[in-house]
Fold each of these.
Amino acid sequence: MDSLDALVAQVQGFSGTDDLLHLFSLLKQSDELLHNHAPRLQYALSSLDPAKHSLGYLYLLEVQSSGTLSQEQSENFLALASTFLNVCIAEQICLAPEKFNMVCRRVKEQALQLQEPLRAILPLQAAIRKLQPSSEFLTAMHADFLQMCLLAKCYKASLSVLEDDIFEIDQKRTGLVPRDFLLYCYYGGMIHIGLKQFGKALEFFQHAITAPATVLNAITIAAYKKFVLVSLIQLGQVPLFPKYTPPVVQRNLKSCVQDYVDLATSYVTRNIADVKGYITTHEDAFKSDNNLGLARQVIASLYKRNIQRLTQTYLTLSLQDIADNVQLDGPKEAELHILQMIQDGEIFARINQKDGMVSFQEDPEQYNTSAMTMRLNLEIHNIVRLAKKLTSVDEQVSCDQVYLSKIGRDRPRYETEDFDIVPQKMYTNL
Amino acid sequence: MSSSSGLTFKLHPLVILNISDHYTRIKAQQSGSASRPLPPAPRVYGCVLGVQTGRTVEIFNSFELHYDATQNVLDRAFLESKQEQYKKVFPKYDVLGWYSTGSDIQDSDILIHKALTDINESPVYLLLNPTINHAQKDLPISIFESELHVIEGVPSLIFVNASYTIETVEAERISVDHVAHIKPSDGSSAATQLAAHLTGMHSAIKMLNSRIRVLHHHLVSIQKGEAPYEHSLLRQVSSLVRRLPAIDSSRFQDDFVMEYNDTLLMTYLATITKCSSTMNELVDKFNTAYDKQNRRPGRSTFI
């Protein structure tokens, strides 16, 4: 008992910034002590202020939440943890990233146990911001946060985190493991599907597929299944693996997802009846992967694609002909489809109600509005920022030891121009 | 001292070009012989021609004169023959005065001035300061008139400074622009020409920006009450502000925005190209450093 009080006193005393490291080492040693005094932890927690004594609070929370908790205990824990995550001091918790990650994971588990993923969203978002040195870093909580948003169906809440471009991964500072990265890509892709941003979803799934790996894992397989479906919806075909896909993935992935690959091949024939038939026969397989909704969207996209192909052949077409070409049930349904497509901006056409003719038109965008000016300005700024980032990474690689040694080794084979110690290459840096 | 004669002087850039050309030539000829050290800056002399209508003196042209510094004598015969020749071509122009180079007026100048009074009863004296001063923003040209002042009881002719404005005809503007942008003899590729053009535009815009800022600062201080309220200044500022926009119809707006967007699209394309080239280099370097399988033997071309 006394030692616990002594520890609490120490935490309160040492939480000024100078003694943080000292406090940190103390806390690491007293892990055992904390586990022994589990029942008294509640009292200890109430005497500490999470905003000032974040490090000590963190340790106590972590010990309190280990093991199975009763309903009331987990409610309690969730409430305490939520306030803690919102108000904790970033410098203090950055000293113990693994403990922090564990607390956040417990938060997620408790929220799931209580069937209230909504409660965990804001605290986890605050936690991400606190642990990230800058918005370009990936943390372990990204995956958990996105999972909570998916379960709670609050896609918009995750947008601010999703839209950050991730450039840096620092395992020491964030306590990241590769599984977190894969889960981040997978969940991120799923949220984008929920927001109907299929292009971005494809990007995320492709990251998951091409992540360096020595063995195949379930996350990659699940991501590839969704990747096939989304690329059918968005692009009309499944793109080949990029060159940087790890070879073990390239060799083995297709054999695990045979159903989907066959669906892709039948989609390419553009035959609606075939695709529909295929999906109904393999409905169980899709359902078990929770992909049935996506599969239905694939069918819808095939109609759209066929109608879009018609715009390349005809200038005007009657609704009846469209219905026949695309194997729709009748001109009414064709009209509905086309209206929807015009509204979504996927096609430019005019429907003449009197004689039921549809005339296809060109993109009316003239690029002569000031709104377009603003948009162009924004895009140019984005590209300039990206170019700056690229040049800095380029410089980093140029100064890298491995690269310089490889270049130096190849030098004897070159012509006699290279007499310098450090090889000079002709760059025209515009 | 400033002139009190009330004459307004208008100077054409051709005169300035002529004088500077004359001076540069003489200076180059002198320093041609490298055996002796560089002599002090030579003084060149010449006459200025122009038209005087009422109170306005407009100086259009100039020609060079032969001046013997040792004897302080102007070659009159040469001057008269030249004057006749110019009269045949430009009957309207009269000899209005003379010019010289140097940093300040000298005593010998007044003698030359008096010598010219038989051609023109009140000649003007144009002084060009050839020393290059980068901090100075105005032209190093001053125009002097001669006035009869009573100094220490003795009436004597002294020089008084007069203000002038620069007046240009369209042809002169083009030629001055051309001379100002003399390209370097080597490296006349499109890239350097474009860079030179853009830097010129950039410095012009920068100067415009700084001047507008000065005006703005002054107006703000007038608003706060720190500076006196001057009606004439405010009228000038108001007329300046009303000169833009020059056209303001909706059709102009449409065309302007379309052209602006086209330029932006080109810039966008250029930035994307530059970005892709950086990415290409980066990928090549990364592959040579880290990729175990695709080692390329021999030299790879870097763009």
Note: The first strand of chain A starts at residue 316 and ends at 318.
Amino acid sequence: MSSASHVAAQKLDILVDTFISKLKRRQITGSYKIATETCQFLMRVISTSRWSTPQEFIQLIRKVGQRIQEAQPREFVTGNVVRRVLAIIRDEVNGTGDSLNNANVNNGAPSAPVDTSMFQLLSTVNTSSSTNLAIKENTRGQNDLRSVVIQGIRELSDEISSVNENIEAMTVDLIHENEVLLTPTPGSGTVLNFLLKASLKRKFTVLVTESYPNDIEECHLFAKKLAEANIETVIIPDSTVFAVMSRVGKVLIGARSVFANGGCVSNAGVAAVCECAKEHRTPVFAVAGLYKFSPTYPFDKDSLIEVGNSGKVMPFEDSDLVGKCEVTNPVFDYVIPEHIDIYITNMYVYFFLFINLFFQFIST
Amino acid sequence: MGNAIRWLKQKISQIPIEMSDDDAKVQLNEDIDLFIQEKILYSGKVITQFASGHIQNNSKILTYGHSEVLKKLFKYCAIEENKSFEIYIVDSKPLFEGKKLAKELSSVKNIKCHYNLITSLSSVLERSSIDFCFLGANSMLSNGRLYSRVGTALVAMSSKNKNIPVLVCCESIKFSDKVQLDSVTLNELGDADDMINTKPFNKTGFNLQQYLNKLEAKKLEEQNSTGGKKGQQQQQQSKKEKDDKLLQSSQKNEETLSNWKDYPSLNILNVLYDLTPPEYIQKIITEVGALPPSSVPVILREYKSIT
């Protein structure tokens, strides 16, 4: 019995270590891919793991979650997915807590709700000295819990993949005829989808900033796709944003992660664009799937911003400058919550002052 | 430039009728030389004197693009006054004027240069505690707005919001009677094809591109017209594949939007100038003194009354 659990623990370790290496080596990049891969990974972890109480189960998943969050610390999506899975597990455990405790009733354990910690201290003492019957009941309970949780994760995975479809539904109400939109995040697939779907019902113009040097190829592909869909597209350099802002009706950005205070991390240059929009009283919409919302608070803004290849800012062709100047290339930008008017997600539409209500909903 | 031409016309009208053409020309030449000395070269020096008081040892300065006056100012402070300070140069596509400034200043001993693109502006302002923002001007309009390289307004706005004083160095010759309310009504367009490059300065000129296209067409024609033995054909085919692969690999570096003109809904906007509202500017430093942006019409009145 112990050797089987030993083998299972080894399998689990191998699984976790492979996934962490993938994350560390950046073999998986992009919030969407990471979210779906994390779901798959957690399903496998849950099928191979062994535990004796639901509390141990929750602790196990939490530890795994902490490890994978540390593998790519600026990608908050892994932590968010793990939190949603924990919420699913806690829901199940709370819902079926009574039936598990009834199984232990002949050991004299009190039938109290499972997550009250004082009672749990007493009941763990009892379950460690439980009989074979209790163990059998436990494993059956375990299997039930496992399959229910895996079902829950599958639903979560479906929700993540259908983010785009759900956001599309809100497009029509937000854009009116002959409007001019500005988008500084051409790398966002969600924004692209949003605009393509909106173009079926409304006619509008889109200004796309180049986001040189990091996203310029994405910008050109984005503009090409919009032009192929017969949407009037104008490519503007990043410096022209202030000049055209007086003619822009709405600014649409794609967020990479959203935090508990309502601030978000997006591509470089977006913070300046949102500031500019605020000065001109232009509304700013952020689109993000629900899996990008994180209950963490951005205490240290410097650690959020990843710095990329300086060679893109100053290529080695400028050899006389390369050694003499300090060059940095921040890839991300933090946008403060006051600059974003509304978050559009696949489930609800949020305003940053009310965002904490939403976090209460998903994390307990 | 309008001001200079107006001044010249005035000078011409002031020449007495009796003077011969040659004498008049000589006098005009002298006047023009004097004008250049006074209004352009000496102004630069006076502005430098006024503005150098702001730059102390170990100060951090932010600047955008390339301005002759500012370059003189920074060099003066570093070399003559022997102050050591840091400069954050912000630059943008497609002109990359900041690189010119960076090249000049990075070789000066007391100056530490930082070079960034305009997308990283808010990160730079967050991280480094910048003391002053110096901007150059193309012209100052009568309603206090600064007409300068596109992107200046963004830099001025971001600096103002972080409580960094924005100083504009501008010779009085650049003051204009014009009034303009926003950047879009009157502006200059740059070359749209400059925007297509994903890497700086990689564009092939129009003639070169046409020549390359002709070469390609010729090659295809030759390959189609040669009948020949099967072996030869096969050789040619494999050669053609190799050529195609080479072409493809060089075309990968070619841009996604190289045929942007084929898409009717796709446009490229490359304006050269923008307008900075007076709220963002703290002080304008000219050779006649330092003044707030609302005082521009006063200088114009003075300037008109002198000439």
Note: The two ends of chain A are 34 Å apart (CA to CA).
Amino acid sequence: MCLRFSAAMPLSTQSQADDEQYVLVASLDNARNLSNILKAITFKDHAIFNATPNGLKVTVEDSKCLQANAFIQAEIFQEFTIKEDLVGFQVNLTVLLDCLNIFGGSSVPGVSTALRMCYGGYGFPLTLFLEEGGVVTVCKINTQEPDEPIDFEFCSTNVTNKVILQSESLKEPFSELDMTSEVLQITMSPSQPYFRLSTFGNSGNAHYDYPKDSDMMELFQCTKTQTNRYKMSLLKPSTKALALSCKVSVRTDSRGFLSLQYLVRNDDGQICFVEYYCCPDEEVE
Amino acid sequence: MATMSCVLEGNRVKVAPYCVAAFGKAIHALSRIGEELWLDPMVKGLALRSVNSAHSAYTCFLFSPMFFQHYSLGSGSEQGSATIKCKLLMKSVLPLFRGLNSIERNVERSQISISTPSDRVTIQFFCRHGITKTHNLHFQESEALQAEFASHLCPNVLKAPARLLGDMVMHFPVFQEEITLSMMPLSVSFRNYCEAGNDHMKMMYTEMSLHPDEFDYFQVGVDSDITFCLKELRGFLSFAESHSLPVSVHFGATGNPVRFYIKDMVLEATVVLATLMDSEKRGPSQPIGPPHPSSPRCADAAALPAVSYEADGSKPQDIPAVTELITSSQGSPIINPPALMQLLSPVDDPDRLSVSDEACPSATTTPASTMICSLLFRALSSEQDDDGCAARLPVLACHSDAEEDMEEDYRRSPSL
């Protein structure tokens, strides 16, 4: 990565000729609309970027058991130009976030960092042009060949239980989960306790019960009683996505695989999605 | 089967401060003292107690049945059924009550129950939106922990709004471990305590004096300087302030323990702190002051029975009698450890001195605790007591089994 400071030169006056070399150009007036959502999936250093004409998908995986995806649709960007059907690369996510926040990330109203993200294709670095208050910074981040994201084969037809909760009701329990518990157990059932999060720690166990008629429960579709355990260390990072979101859907399929989908509103009120997939630790009952 | 069950209202239903958040605030205050929490459900209420590892600080919060929306003991209506007494790790309980603001906003009702077959304490929070949080915590069965402190034998008594004391201690930095409270006929002063050997040039000395008129009640039986750990008192004062309750302070001569006490219709709380024996270590700005009578007041009071402090509250009318006792005992030889020990624990050998060497080392004790000679009490809880060295410390007050007669198997033994 190298940094070059240019004289005040708004990003928009860059010559069109420069753009010919890029297979992907994405611009945002407010870089936070990208950096905030990426923070929700930063639990590993490396991320796989996959861009299509529909938008950008960023994937982070952990030990082949957990996958997090952030979706930023093309409409969110002020400019989104892609020359191929699929453009993929892998970068160090921590470095990318550092660059996006290079101006300090202070949230003074009205002042934001503008971003122009450009990628020349296989073998080229990811180039970021960042501007705030007339100062432009250029960052070039090395890219690697992207790994193939795991396909968890989670499809809607196989979903046994689904609930949609307002994130507000989950934020506190998630932040106070007993971390001495190795697992987070999720019980979903058409009968009591309906939706239950459980931990088993050194001091004892804890249960958080959400009744199906709670006003925080926007949707309750449970067909079969299922109890599954997931490694706490894998799910705990999802707390960041929960903190940003206003709603979350929790689904389990017949194998006990877990899908968490978070609806996130960015600074401008636009909707983006983050999802987590997790393999069960073991099946109980 | 021994059981206990009580229900607390949340802030939204019942007027604060009689609510879950108040209970949580008590837990916070208890957590400043020790690492274990003793729960003792009794007919007269639920007692929560804690003691620090050096046994130099003890606190008890007693919530009467009226504090709760519902309070019941026992598996049936038998009055004589054994109630379970248990001990929990503070680090298991405190996180449940850590977010007091959140509890005030969200918790509509809370239920605490103990049941022996499952050896679990169940704490349930019934929250807004129908959400229920259930915590099942392991407990250890334990003998009740209790300190005896004969308030009515204390020559010095102060009573002041918690706010006054809070305003005083606010001036001391958070890292200030000990402060000295000096009582003289015309003033009460607080100053920070500095150990000898500290570089006096680098220390900041703070002293505040109050006129007796500032107190709701002021009685000086003997001039005295008592030095005690402030850190252990802060949580209690914060609780007292949040309930706008006056605090009673009972103490005697240097080296004797001090008791802070609050009470209202539904709860009472006490902190008993040991005080430093050696009062000669002061900041350079301090006057030497009048010579303190060094004999404990109660040398001639050996005939008085030990009285549980809970029954006593503060009875100023008893104090004058003791004051007379004081003048007659002026000039008596020093008896060390304090003679209150003789009142309550005749089995102990009063010649066992050199407490400072025997004090239990612990990462959580304050530096001065190792010099504190008064051991307040002995918690004779079966084999869980890990302080083997506590056996050799003189005992100021004994484990009390006054409340329940059924602990026949309880053994009062001088060594643990």
Note: Confidence is low (pLDDT under 50) at residues 5-10 of chain A.
